[in-house]
Amino acid sequence: MNMQTPRLSANDVFDILEAKTIKLSQAGYYAMYSSWLGGIVTDVGLMNLPIDDHMVHRGDGVFEALKLVNGGIYLLEEHLERLFLGAAKLNLNQNYNKDQLRQIILQTAQAGLDFFVQKNPGAQIQDFSAIVRLFLSRGPGSFGTNPYETIGNQFYCVITELKAVSPEKYKTGVSIGKSHLAVKSSWFPTIKSCNYLPNVLMKKEAVDRHLDFTVTFTDEGFMAESSTENIFLLDRSLQLVHPRCDYILKGTMMTRIFELAKYHNIVPVAEPADITESNLIGAQGVFMSGTTFDLLPVNNYEGMKIPSATVYEKLFKLLKEDQRAGSPKMTALK
């Protein structure tokens, strides 16, 4: 039987997008800014970008994910700094400065909040938790690898639902294992680029093995990082230590945890170091950090029990205090 693929008119497309918007209205997508469109949309069906944007077909771009809680965005300045550093390493020309991006981000977040309140009458700003996703791309123009064939870089900001981790994980801890995937080579691990295929495969590996996370090791046997999370230890000398940043992405959450630990004298902080698997197994505590969940304790590695550390509760409490309204590290929406 011959199948006839329809040729769609502009009206057909708008009708389809409207139908998809209704179907995806509960997907937790609140708002999107697109430099390609030149503004903010809250209809899910309009949250699109050109397929020939080099970020789409080549992974040529950088991104960040930030937490929005308690009426503000946490570590906005730190994430903007890393976004710009990554863009510079990829030679992405800037059409915006930080002040302009900051305004766009806050206005898009406000649109997301307004949309949330519209869908949830009576909701207050304290009820709104979200992830702020930033993308700086090479831009559309041709489907090749030549970065000079685009019409200019683009910026996208998307506000989506913050999906909470099970509260039980904060009490009992998470299970981790050794990844079979290679660590990214050269300076690529230090850039939060949109080429995340190894990270995707790491996540698949963890899910397939019924683990919470898997962790990579370098060819020399040094612990690196997880799919989208950092890992660090309370070592045998009871110091906090994380891997050297030559072969990991220096996480904003991990960095802030170490700053808080040092400032409040919670626990001694060591210089970044090469950490082996035996260091991991013999640690007095192991922790995962990330934007979505903040900080989680590890209870076992490859089935071997990891001791629980009382310092975890202290660090977690400090993080939550750091994310309160009015904190210096929170950028308020209003």
Plain-language structure description:
There is one protein chain. By secondary structure, this protein is α+β, with helices and mostly antiparallel strands. It has two domains: about 10-160, D-amino Acid Aminotransferase, Chain A, domain 1 (2-Layer Sandwich); about 165-320, Alpha-Beta Barrel (D-amino Acid Aminotransferase, Chain A, domain 2), CATH 3.20.10. The chain contains nine helices and 14 strands. Strands 2-1-6-5-3-4-14 form a seven-stranded antiparallel sheet. Strands 7, 8, 9, 10, 11, 12 and 13 form a seven-stranded mixed sheet that branches. The radius of gyration is 21 Å and the shape is globular. The termini are far apart. The model has no long low-confidence stretch (mean pLDDT about 95).
Task: Set down the secondary structure blueprint.
Elements: H1 10-23, E1 29-34, E2 39-41, H2 54-57, E3 61-69, E4 72-74, H3 76-89, H4 98-119, E5 130-137, E6 154-161, H5 167-172, E7 174-178, H6 197-208, E8 213-215, E9 230-234, E10 240-241, H7 252-263, H8 277-281, E11 285-290, E12 294-301, E13 304-305, H9 311-322, E14 330-332
Strand tally is 14
The largest sheet, given as strand count, sense and whether it forms a barrel, is: 7 strands, antiparallel
Annotated CATH homologous superfamily of the largest domain: D-amino Acid Aminotransferase, subunit A, domain 2
Q: Which topology of the largest domain does CATH recognise?
A: D-amino Acid Aminotransferase, Chain A, domain 2
Main sheet strand line-up: 2-1-6-5-3-4-14
- Give the end-to-end Cα distance, rounded to a whole number of Å: 59 Å
How many helices? The count is 9
* Named CATH architecture of the largest domain: Alpha-Beta Barrel
- Low-confidence blocks of residues: none
Secondary structure: helix percent: 25-40%
User: What letter string, H or E per element, gives the SSE order?
Assistant: HEEHEEHHEEHEHEEEHHEEEHE
Strand content: 15-25%
Total separate domains: 2
Secondary-structure-based class equals alpha+beta
Overall morphology? globular
Average pLDDT metric: 94
Q: What is the CATH top level name of the largest domain?
A: Alpha Beta
- Assembly form of the protein: single chain
Any idea what the radius of gyration is?
21 Å
